[in-house]
Automatic annotation (TrEMBL):
SUPFAM superfamilies: Thioesterase/thiol ester dehydrase-isomerase
Pfam families documented for this protein: 4HBT
Name the record gives this protein: Thioesterase domain-containing protein
CDD domains linked: PaaI_thioesterase (cd03443)
Native source organism of the sequence: Mycolicibacterium elephantis DSM 44368
Domain Thioesterase: residue ranges: 183-255
C-alpha cells in the first residue's frame, strides 16, 4: 500500500506491503538521507519506519472502541548501518513487525530491519490503548508515487537554527502534511529530528572520525505541534574517543519538553 503524497507516510515514501495483528511489513527509501546539521548520511529515516510499522502492528490489536497512542520507541542499529544503506541507495530498508506478549492496556511491537537481506537493526514500539478519540482525521485523498527528490530536511519542514548552538538545534515549521490523524506532528518525524540533533551534538567537536548512532530511545510525553517557536534541541552528555551519549528534546511554543530522546553512538 502506497500512501498519498499529502500524508506523512507518503511524503517519506513509506510503503506497507502487509499488515495485520500478527505481522506488518513496510519499507522506506533511506539511501540518500543526509543530516542537515552535519552533512553526513543519516539513519534517521529508520526512526520514521519503526514508529510506523511497530505502531501499526499494535494498532491492529485494538478493539473497535479503542485507539492507540505510542508512548515510546527504541532502535538498536549496527554502527555501520548508514554506510550499508548508502552503498545501495536505491534499495529501500524493509521492516517486519510482530506483536510481543498478550494485549493489555499497553502493547509492544518487535521489529527487524533489513537491507539487501542484511539485518541492520532491531526495534520496539510501545503503545497505549485508549478510548477512541472523536477528532481522528482520515487520510486525505491525493496522488501516490515516489516522493519528490528533495533533501530530507525539506520533507521534514525543519531548518537549522541560526547562531547560538546552531549545530544542535533544528526548527520545526508548521506543515499539515506532517501531522498524524490526531493533528499533531507525526511521531516518526519527531523521532527523526531528535536523532539528527543528538547525533550532531555528539559530533560537534569531532573533525575526523564521527561517532555513529547505535541506539535511539524516544519517550513521547505530550502533544507536539510545529510552529515558529517549535524546535529540537540536542545536548551531548558525554563524548569520548570511541563512544558518545546525547539527550534530545522536542520543545513547543510553551517552552516545555514534549518528547525526550537519547542517542548512544560508537566509532
Amino acid at each position: 500500500m502506497s500512501y498519498p503524497l499529502c500524508t506523512p507516510l507518503g511524503r517519506f515514501g513509506v510503503v506497507t506491503s502487509e499488515e495485520g495483528p500478527h505481522r506488518c511489513v513496510a519499507s522506506i527509501p533511506a539511501g540518500r538521507a543526509v543530516n542537515p546539521l552535519t552533512g553526513a548520511p543519516t539513519v534517521a529515516p529508520l526512526a520514521m519506519l519503526v514508529d510506523h510499522v511497530g505502531g501499526l502492528v499494535n494498532h491492529h490489536r485494538r478493539d473497535t472502541d479503542e485507539w492507540t497512542v505510542t508512548s515510546e520507541l527504541s532502535l538498536e542499529l549496527r554502527p555501520e548501518a548508514a554506510e550499508l544503506i548508502a552503498s545501495a541507495p536505491d534499495v529501500p530498508v524493509v521492516a517486519t513487525a510482530r506483536p510481543f506478549g498478550p494485549k493489555g492496556e499497553v502493547a509492544l511491537g518487535l521489529c527487524e530491519f533489513t537491507h539487501r537481506d542484511v539485518v541492520l537493526a532491531t526495534a520496539t514500539v510501545r503503545s497505549f490503548f485508549i478510548s477512541a478519540p472523536g477528532r481522528v482525521m482520515e487520510f486525505p485523498d491525493g496522488p501516490t508515487g515516489p516522493p519528490p527528490p528533495v533533501p530530507l530536511a525539506e520533507k521534514m519542514a525543519v531548518t537549522v537554527a541560526e547562531g547560538g548552538g546552531a549545530g544542535q538545534v533544528l526548527l520545526q515549521a508548521s506543515d499539515p502534511v506532517l501531522n498524524n490523524s490526531l493533528g499533531i506532528v507525526h511521531g516518526g518525524v519527531s523521532a527523526m529530528a531528535l536523532e539528527m540533533v543528538a547525533s550532531a551534538a555528539i559530533n560537534a567537536e569531532r573533525e575526523h572520525v564521527p561517532l555513529r548512532t547505535a541506539s535511539l530511545r524516544v519517550n513521547f510525553m505530550r502533544e507536539f505541534h510545529g510552529g515558529a517557536e517549535s524546535r529540537y534541541l540536542g545536548t551531548a552528555l558525554r563524548v569520548g574517543r570511541r563512544t558518545g551519549i546525547a539527550e534530545a528534546q522536542a520543545v513547543g511554543a510553551d517552552g516545555v519538553p514534549a518528547i525526550l530522546a537519547w542517542v548512544t553512538a560508537y566509532r
